[in-house]
Amino acid sequence: MRSGSDILNGPIEFEAIEPEKENIIPLKEGRSARGLAQALTLGSSELHDTRVQYERRLLEELEDMDDPLELFLEYISWINNAFPQGGTSKKSGMLDVIERCIMYFKDMETYKNDPRYLKVWLWYVELYSSDVLQESKDIFVYMFRKRIGAKLTLFYEEFATLLFQMEKFNEAHNILKLGVEENSRPQNRLLRKLNEFEVKLRELNVNFSQENAADTRFLSSDPNSFILGRRRASFTNNENNVNPQPQGHQQQASKYEVFQDNNIPDSNNSENINREGWDVLESKATRRKENKQHSLLLEPGSNVGTIEQTSDVIPNKRPSSSQKLAIFKDDLGRSDPVYKILHVPGKKPEKIDCNFDLIYPNPGEEYCIEEILAKSRDLYYRREPVKRAEYPKQDLQENKKKRKLAPLGEKIPLSGKKPLGEKKPTDDGLALVESHPLDKKSPGIFPQPSGPSSSERIDGSHSRADVEPPLEYKGVTRTSILPLRDTSDEMKTPVSNLKETPQPPKSPTMTFFSNAAMSEVYSMYNQHYNEPKEPFDNNETTNKFIFDNLTQEFTRQHMDDLTEIKPTDQSAGKDSEKTPNRQTNEITFGSDFNNEQQLYSNGAAKDFMTPIQERTEKTDHFSPNGKNINWTSQKDEISSTQSSPFLTQPQHEIREEEKYPILENPLDPHMRRQLLAGIRPPLDQYDTFYRYNQPLKMSTLLKRIQKMSKTENKNPIVDFKKTGDLYCIRTELGEGGYATVYLAESSTGNLRALKVEKPASIWEYYILKQVEERLREQSVLPSIINANSLHCFEDESYLVLNYASQGTILDLINLQKGKTRGPLDECLCMFFTVELMKIVESIHRVDILHGDLKPDNCMIRFENGSLGPYRPDGSLGWNKKGIYLIDFGRSFDMRLLPPNTKFKANWKTDQQDCLEMRSGKPWTYEADYYGLAGIIHAMLFGNFIESVQLPNGRFKLRQSFKRYWRQALWSSVFDVLLNSNEFGPFPITDQITKLRLEIESHLLDQFDDKLKEIVTDLELELTRFRR
Amino acid sequence: MSNSISLRGSTRTITEFFEYSINSILYQRGVYPQEDFTTIRKYGLTLLKTHDEELKAYIRRILAQVHKWLVGGKCNKLVLCIVDKDEGDKVEEWSFDVVQFSKLDQNQVELPQEVDDNETQNQIRSLIRQITASVTFLPELNNEGNYTFNVLAYTDANAKVPLEWSDSDNKPINNGETVQFKSFRTNDHQVGAQVSYRY
């Protein structure tokens, strides 16, 4: 120990503090250097002794002291000095002491406006809630209600500063003004602060003068009304009274109260108090684990009584779980936006930012936004039972019809019954149509049930004469299931009846798009929406079934009404678009499309369709496609899409546009067949190409057996007569868009991948053989999957490939995710990137475009063999490590096509397809560069690539690189790959090579040993992918 | 002659140190807004220096005079006071004692050995570090812009005082605390620093 006298007199040497300076938390009011120097020399036992001493004094003397706060302050300041690490450290026990202090004095009138006490509060806020502004605010609100510091300027200053930080400028301004009203002390300072604040607000262009009251609802617009003792007392009494449940925990009680008070519309003030902020301030520790505590405390069923009371305010069925209650109460402001995710099979889930629980509170019930609004303002539910129970839709329909027929109704009295009718058409109308006076008298109120029915009676005669047979809308209304529009029309109807000069119908079409017709349309959409749920097999019988179904619908609609057919047709057309097998639909499809065009030309129809947003989106999507089909049908060709196996006519169209030829349908099998027919030497001369002039009809069988054999352990055998090879199918490895890949064991015991395609396709075999041929003797060849042979039957083809057992890069990414929740190690990403670049460079050099680069098309190739430090040239065993590129089904041999040919994708694109493909522009090598970028992205980030367009037209990744990655390197890689068209004429192999060399040198410099370790470790793990 | 050169060199070092320490203190204690300062490298540290022309000129004027006094051996203490604008109270006092070895009684104190320039720089660096670290115990000077500063120079009675400097007496800070920092030496001077603050 240092000599005490030295420290007590004269300046403190900074050296005494310096070694600990990082451990000292600065205090607002500063620290005594002397105290610090002393504290730093004290041992823990001495600290303990002092603490015990203080605790004893708190226990024994506190109640007898004149100024008990003094003792607390002393204690707190001792802690501050003795624990320079700061009060937030657990060791200091500061939290406990402060909480005891503020709780002890919180109801003592003498201390409420003691600046020292207020400072303890502020200290508490600063120390324990400063990171959560909302929590700080809650504490301030609590203090405000308790009137702690209500007469002190400091309180208002601090509160306003906090609110200012939260950017609640109006509230902050209000708080300061409240302080002025309260005559808080020192008033001058507060006034000055208020002025400064207003200046600041003006600088920020915040309009603070208006809507003051609305913003400080949590304080109530009139603060005095509730913060005066009387109000507060009644409020606290209330809290005790409404808690009838004997087992109610105090905390629970206040929670219930929140709900109950919401039901009493008159007690606005107390409602506001209760709704926001805390009534009871609990210790920090309790607050923290609030939710957890509730789930333990609440017994099922114990709180049912209280919740029932809330049920008519909030119409949705909230599960009466305690968790919900807790969350509800904690909300100071609004809750998070509620959304709904729709899952439609075969589509991406759709998120709708709308509270579906409000719109569809119960099955079969639906409310529009206006209704919900009305309900929330208590204007709605009085009418609700009337409408739901006694007002069937047929009546509505009639009512609506009547509006249209009104001019007719007027003519009749004129001609026949009443001579005065000319002057008073209104009276005539009233006399005839009984519902009119009713409507007139109570325009705002819903028409009584008798009105419409009477109008129906009267209208009956007219409507018979109308274009629509009465039968029709009976049928229509029966199927209408969306009452959405009806309700809004109900509102309109009385109004339109009031207009004594009814407008003649604009056009006949208007009639048919009446409510019921519309809901009929909607209902049809709804039905079709569900249809994809039915499992489609490539089975002909199911297709026929669908076909029947469609025709039925058409015919039925034709009988009903011509105009109504349009929307149906459209949906049918859309439906057939989805149907995988085209043949059965061919004829209908063409005619559908014509109808659809009609529909588009019809402006009214288009208008009417807009209410459903999703629909319009789809039509937009559909129309370009439709145009294509139309174009082909003009040439009397059978409409079709890319992969139609039943195609009989040439489809391949190369249109000269600008400078380069564009291939519209790059995957078209017929075009491929034509191309392949022209190659020299012909395919049939290839060693491993076997053509059979017979159908095999195995693939469907395989599929079925495959499913069964999972349980029965019975493996099908494929026999290739020409080679005498027998392949025993072990399991299914994967299923692509056009083919299924099986793992097969040959008679010699080798494992092979068998890619079965139906209809037969020799394209991939050709590409693979070309790659093999053109890259002969090159080191990169082992990185591309090797086609052993192709057995091509009339109906299906069997491509025998080498089997890679170690899984794909996608598997690896997922494996890594499961292991560390993170993406791959950066240097492993670099390694794979280099490998991929090598492959892409070499195949591009020989004019092969892969066209479908993605993580699941890259198999990992870690062959056995010892490994030295990383060598990019493949030495030291590194040629045994790398990847296999597979799936050349979408590939192109550019040598077969005219130079500079571009493609247009006519398949459904997704995030992993390149930007040009997605936007429908022609593309070539971009596809591979973007695909490569996608793979690298997936490896680096562990998710699929997403890019954004910069203002200068370039693309960059949406996500940003990790701080510790080689950011410059990666950003240049992605810049080139995403904006490949800006780097000179395609292919930009030189650019890629440059990038690759850069990465290689990085790997060589920094990671050669690390990479070796990672790869060796991975090799062991990857064995689990072996099947 | 050589003595005179070394004296001037030493004085320049000290004046320079004053300049940087005054800037640092003004920045750290929030006497002037942060935006008025830019970072520079000095003494192997990143320090902050004002780019407000008016303030720069003011400091320069003070230090030019202090420099003259130092060369003449007339100044033995420089004090930077931070003053509350409203109340006029002194809140903090940073004082730098300057001891010129040649003026010491040769008999009482043994003359220190020579120090090389590097050593001086090292000492200055650790002193400035301490000044920077002093925020751990100094109170927060809230409401920024509410403070200003004064520079007092303690000179010999016979020193020439220009017109813009006026006599003043330094009041001690009431019930304050004082912390002594390290000191640094040149061949001719020793400079110590301490801060007194209200607590």
Automatic annotation (TrEMBL), chain A:
| PROSITE patterns attached to this UniProt entry | BUB1_N (PS51489), PROTEIN_KINASE_ATP (PS00107), PROTEIN_KINASE_DOM (PS50011), PROTEIN_KINASE_ST (PS00108)
Residue ranges annotated as compositionally biased, kind Polar residues, are: 625-650
Q: Name one GO biological process term.
A: meiotic sister chromatid cohesion, centromeric
Key word ATP-binding present: yes
Q: Tell me where in this chain the Protein kinase domain is found.
A: 727-1027
Q: Which GO terms describe its molecular function?
A: ATP binding; protein kinase activity
| Compartment annotation | Chromosome, Centromere, Kinetochore
Q: Which GO terms describe its cellular component?
A: kinetochore; nucleus; protein-containing complex
Q: Where is the composition biased (Basic and acidic residues)?
A: 456-467, 565-580
| BUB1 N-terminal domain span | 58-220
InterPro entries of this UniProt entry?
Bub1/Mad3 (IPR015661), Kinase-like_dom_sf (IPR011009), Mad3/Bub1_I (IPR013212), Mad3/Bub1_II (IPR012572), Prot_kinase_dom (IPR000719), Protein_kinase_ATP_BS (IPR017441), Ser/Thr_kinase_AS (IPR008271)
Keywords attached to this entry: ATP-binding, Centromere, Chromosome, Kinetochore, Nucleotide-binding
Annotated region described as Disordered, given as residue ranges: 391-468, 565-588, 617-650
The record's annotation in PANTHER family points to: BUB1 KINASE, ISOFORM A-RELATED (PTHR14030:SF4), MITOTIC CHECKPOINT SERINE/THREONINE-PROTEIN KINASE BUB1 (PTHR14030)
- The protein in question is named Protein kinase domain-containing protein
Source organism: Zygosaccharomyces rouxii
Automatic annotation (TrEMBL), chain B:
- Keyword annotations from UniProtKB, A to Z: Cell cycle, Cell division, Mitosis, Nucleus
UniProt keyword annotation of Nucleus present: yes
Q: Name a biological process GO annotation.
A: positive regulation of protein autoubiquitination
Where found, per UniProt?
Nucleus
Record Gene3D superfamilies = HORMA domain (3.30.900.10)
Q: Which GO terms describe its cellular component?
A: cytoplasm; kinetochore; mitotic checkpoint complex, CDC20-MAD2 subcomplex; nucleoplasm
Pfam families per the UniProt record, alphabetical:
HORMA (PF02301)
Which segments constitute the HORMA domain? 8-195
Q: Which domain of life is it from?
A: Eukaryota
Q: Which SUPFAM superfamilies match?
A: The spindle assembly checkpoint protein mad2
Provide the family line: Belongs to the MAD2 family.
Q: What is this protein called?
A: HORMA domain-containing protein
Where does this protein come from, organism-wise?
A: Zygosaccharomyces rouxii
